[in-house]
Amino acid sequence: MSIDIIIIGAGPAGMSAAITATESGAKVLLLDDQPTPGGQIYRAIEAAGDKQATILGPEYMAGKPLAQNMRSTNIEYVADASVWQVTDEREVGYSSNGQARLVTAPAIILATGAMERPFPIKGWTLPGVMMAGAAQTMLKTSGLAAEGAIFAGCGPLLYLVAHQYLQAGVKIAAIVDTTAKANRLKALPHIPGALRRWDLLSKGQKWQSEIRKSGTRIINNVRALKVLGDTKAEGLSVNAGGTWQNIPSDHIFLHQGVVPNVNLSFAASLDHDWDEQQLCWRPKTDQWCGTSIDGVYVAGDGGGIGGGLAARASGEIAALGSLAKLGLIDTAARDSKAKTARTTLRRELSIRPFLDTWFRPSDDFRVPTDDDAIICRCEELSLKDIRDTIEIGLVGPNQLKSFCRAGMGPCQGRFCGLTVQELIAKQTNRPAADVGYYRLRPPIKPLRLEELANLQIEEDENIKF
Amino acid sequence: MFKRVINDAIADVVFDFEGAKITARSGESVAAALLADDLLSFRQTPVKDLARGPFCMMGVCFDCLMVIDGQPNRQACQVVATSGMKVARQHGAAELNIDQADPA
Ligand code: FES
């Protein structure tokens, strides 16, 4: 039996898309790089019980019925599958269990989600410094939390994880909030639009006040940060309102928002736009999540940050779009089935302009000014190294890459791409959108030569439903 | 250091880390188990020989690279710990050892 739709990513968008598509009789292959479904938002959701519900909250637990639903339908779901390429011929290359495979389908939905925005400060490469999302992942997958940690940065996730730590009874050394005061005024005009998800805003307020009541130290008006330590993190040096102070801790969790994880969509040569509000690239999509390549769709946060519920809705929309395209449903059915999802999506996106403006990461934390701050973690290049290279007269990230290897390490620019782009923009006085991004090519995940040599091109009978 | 605030493991898994026995919860990654054991530095970097450890825990930063069952450059945050596994820190870049490659 041949596959109708290949879905990449089993988070909220991918699971919803898979369920919707299967309900209409499509044969779905769902590939995911984690051992269990859920994506980052619902990570390890299947194993979650009462304790997780108390600590992680109802938004997390909402993923459980979704995962159950996905498991109960007739979807070919492959866990631990690392997808290293998607071509414009809709050919997907992936590896699982040491075996590389190529599969094709008339429709492909990329649901690869988001990752945290780089936070390039001095010392962010030291052991003990992690992203706040990583702290949350450890809570979800292993019930692990670090006593006396520092949470630094801005954005809802920072306070969400801090609040979850308190729910778990874990003390926090300090919350160091880098949100610029000036953002508030700019966010005001977006309040009317945000009213439809006012519950979310009041929830944020509630977390903040509970954190404050717990006696946790909160530092505001932060202008600069440096991680202390030589071989491991020993604390955070904080410049608040012009004066420096040191807070000791072995664990520092950084966060300044999430951005679409675009390595696969870029490597698939989809057209992308620079989003000035969210300060990130997003693949160009139409109202059915279709992209610049016929039959390739993008759903969820990988197409622009909207959060878990928006991701579920856009997953449904992408599935309906591809079902109609494949002739499995007619356009009337597509349009009527998409109604609820569209309402959800509109509601969820209505709060974004407010959130994106309020929590816009400050220029100095996106484009560092500290010469020693590492920009490219893999090739270990500092701000000075990058700046000196741009000085030669380079105009784009790809030139920079060939001159100093920035973005050429194993992470393939995931943690330096945006910084390098904005650095070049600043130094050459051009808009970030004009500077562009690294040209990304497959394989976007490490692929062993042995796997490539034994590449298996899937014959239809190998796919079991 | 990290501590278990939720401990609902059904079964434990024991693996070897440079000669030491590490207990992991079934289903968790090698990286999580080692962090729980207070190991923060997983490798020495290839360029400047500096200590690095897990940063993203979701497979995007590649800072958790270790030698797992003899194979270098494995993402410890993506590899589920299994009993009997042999894990070691990675020093610098992985060496391409042609002699050891299986000719078949
Ligand atoms: S910790 Fe980032 S890839 Fe493993």
Key terms for this structure?
heterodimer, A: 465 residues, alpha/beta, FAD/NAD(P)-binding domain, Arc Repressor Mutant, subunit A, 3 domains, five-stranded parallel beta sheet, 24 strands, globular, B: 104 residues, mainly beta, Ubiquitin-like (UB roll), seven-stranded mixed beta sheet
Short description:
The complex is a heterodimer of chains A (465) and B (104). Chain A has 465 residues and is an alpha/beta fold.
Structure report:
The complex is a heterodimer of chains A (465) and B (104). Chain A has 465 residues and is an alpha/beta fold. Chain A has three domains: 5-115 and 259-329, FAD/NAD(P)-binding domain (3-Layer(bba) Sandwich), CATH 3.50.50.60; 118-256, 3-Layer(bba) Sandwich (FAD/NAD(P)-binding domain), CATH 3.50.50.60; 372-430, Arc Repressor Mutant, subunit A. In chain A, the strands form seven sheets. Chain A has a five-stranded parallel beta sheet, covered by helices on one side. Chain A has a five-stranded parallel beta sheet with strand order 9-17-11-12-13. Chain A has a four-stranded mixed beta sheet with strand order 4-5-6-24. In chain A, helix 1 (12-23) packs parallel to helix 11. The model of chain A has no long low-confidence stretch (mean pLDDT 94). Chain B starts with a strand and ends in a 13-residue tail after the last strand. In chain B, 44% of the residues are buried. Chain B has one domain: Ubiquitin-like (UB roll), CATH 3.10.20.440. Chain B has one helix at 30-36, and strands at residues 2-4, 12-17, 20-25, 43-44, 51-52, 65-68, 71-75, 86-91. Mean pLDDT of chain B is 89; it is low at 99-104. Chain B has one helix and eight strands, in the order E-E-E-H-E-E-E-E-E. Helix content of chain B is 7%, strand content 33%. Chain B has 104 residues and is mainly beta. In chain B, strands 2, 3, 4, 5, 6, 7 and 8 form a seven-stranded mixed beta sheet that branches. Classes of the chains: A alpha/beta (465), B mainly beta (104). At the A-B interface, helix 2, strand 9, helix 5 and strand 10 of A face strand 1, helix 1 and strand 5 of B.
